[in-house]
């Protein structure tokens, strides 16, 4: 196990001060013109643009990307009294039943009804509504049973009534919902985008193909597990909420082939990391098996890496589990120094912000 300090295990050690103006409200256009902080050795780093990514990858390297697609998961409805309600769907538990965050939560107890149609449609067969089944202590959310018009599905009704939810710190954006999807998104199911992938354009992917950089996909539907705050002073006491993951056989074979040929496995985003490392649990180092199911894997300093060699990621919220994951790869103190420099250099932070590449040569050993 990589040596760690006592501070690495405590929440306050992952705090930093971010000026509000450094929180990106809109994405860069074109996508690949965002900035890229390349951490290329244990002691050095360089300031680049994302379109220069091919300069840092080798033929035979493997990029693993998360192909999840963000649902139009934010709904606005009302109670029978007419009081307004906001619903953010997190994950489907079973057919027609979804875990959701609701506002105002305290007034929506089990049995409460939420309507999404106009009041005139409330008593018709065409109505779209939900009933609160239970509270969810782990998330503070509600389990909702949805009722759709005959022949319709919840996903179809979301396309009609829902909005793609931007993160709560994006408050003044002019971005379109399509700008909050990766260009390769295909598996609908996320409440938020895997934001490291937002920097790729079709043209950049084509350049990487021509260079001989391989590409495969995993699916992790981003839910509350990725963004839930760490609230325990000792981070080892934090419990991750489960998220659904699929690592297909084709991706497993690509990792094996890359390893056998001396290539490097580069995860695009922390969700791709969680997917690959979940499929490697219980396996010899460097190996993984096809996996489909829930994961609650929490990666923090001291973690023994199974699959991932390098990482492309954005700049994350203070004291978040995502910062802890990146610290496990790079080192907490160095990560905080890089964040400090990125702030001084006017990098843009969080979902619509700039990116960082941690090469395999730079990671902790």
TrEMBL record:
GO molecular function: S-adenosylmethionine:tRNA ribosyltransferase-isomerase activity
Enzyme class: transferase
SUPFAM superfamilies: QueA-like
Major localization listed first in the record, in broad terms: cytoplasm
Swiss-Prot/TrEMBL keywords: Cytoplasm, Glycosyltransferase, Queuosine biosynthesis, S-adenosyl-L-methionine, Transferase
Pathway(s): tRNA modification; tRNA-queuosine biosynthesis
Subcellular location: Cytoplasm
Role according to the record: Transfers and isomerizes the ribose moiety from AdoMet to the 7-aminomethyl group of 7-deazaguanine (preQ1-tRNA) to give epoxyqueuosine (oQ-tRNA).
UniProt protein name: S-adenosylmethionine:tRNA ribosyltransferase-isomerase
Species this protein is from: Phormidium yuhuli AB48
Gene that encodes the chain: queA
């Amino acid at each position: 196990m990589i040596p760690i300090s006592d501070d690495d295990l405590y929440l306050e050690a992952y705090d930093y001060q971010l000026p509000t103006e450094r929180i990106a409200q809109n994405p860069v256009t074109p996508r690949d013109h965002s900035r890229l902080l390349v951490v290329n050795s244990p002691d050095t780093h360089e300031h680049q643009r994302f379109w220069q990514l091919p300069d840092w990858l080798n033929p035979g390297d493997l990029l693993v990307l998360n192909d999840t697609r963000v649902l139009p998961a934010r709904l606005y409805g009302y109670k029978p009294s007419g009081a307004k309600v906001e619903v953010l769907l997190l994950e489907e538990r079973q057919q027609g039943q979804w875990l959701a965050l609701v506002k105002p939560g305290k007034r929506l107890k089990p049995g409460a009804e939420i309507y999404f149609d106009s009041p005139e449609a409330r008593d018709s067969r065409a109505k779209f509504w939900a009933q609160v089944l239970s509270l969810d202590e782990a998330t503070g959310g509600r389990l909702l049973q949805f009722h759709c018009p005959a022949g319709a599905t919840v996903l179809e009704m979301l396309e009609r009534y829902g909005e793609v939810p931007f993160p709560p710190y994006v408050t003044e954006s002019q971005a379109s919902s399509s700008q909050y999807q990766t260009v390769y998104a295909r598996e609908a199911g996320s409440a938020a985008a895997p934001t490291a992938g937002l920097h790729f354009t079709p043209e950049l992917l084509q350049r990487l193909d021509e260079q001989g950089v391989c590409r495969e996909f995993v699916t992790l539907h981003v839910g509350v597990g990725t963004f839930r705050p760490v609230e325990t002073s000792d981070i080892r006491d934090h419990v991750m909420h489960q998220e659904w993951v699929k690592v297909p056989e084709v991706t497993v074979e690509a990792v094996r082939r890359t390893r056998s040929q001396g290539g490097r496995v580069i995860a695009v985003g922390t969700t791709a990391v969680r997917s690959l490392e979940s499929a490697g649990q219980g396996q010899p180092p460097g190996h993984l098996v096809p996996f489909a199911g829930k994961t609650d894997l929490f990666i923090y300093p001291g973690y023994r890496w199974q699959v991932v060699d390098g990482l492309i990621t954005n700049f994350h919220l203070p004291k978040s589990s995502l910062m802890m994951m990146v610290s496990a790869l790079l080192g907490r103190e160095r990560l905080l120094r890089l964040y400090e420099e990125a702030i001084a250099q006017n990098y843009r932070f969080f979902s619509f912000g700039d990116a960082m590449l941690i090469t395999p040569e730079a990671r902790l050993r």
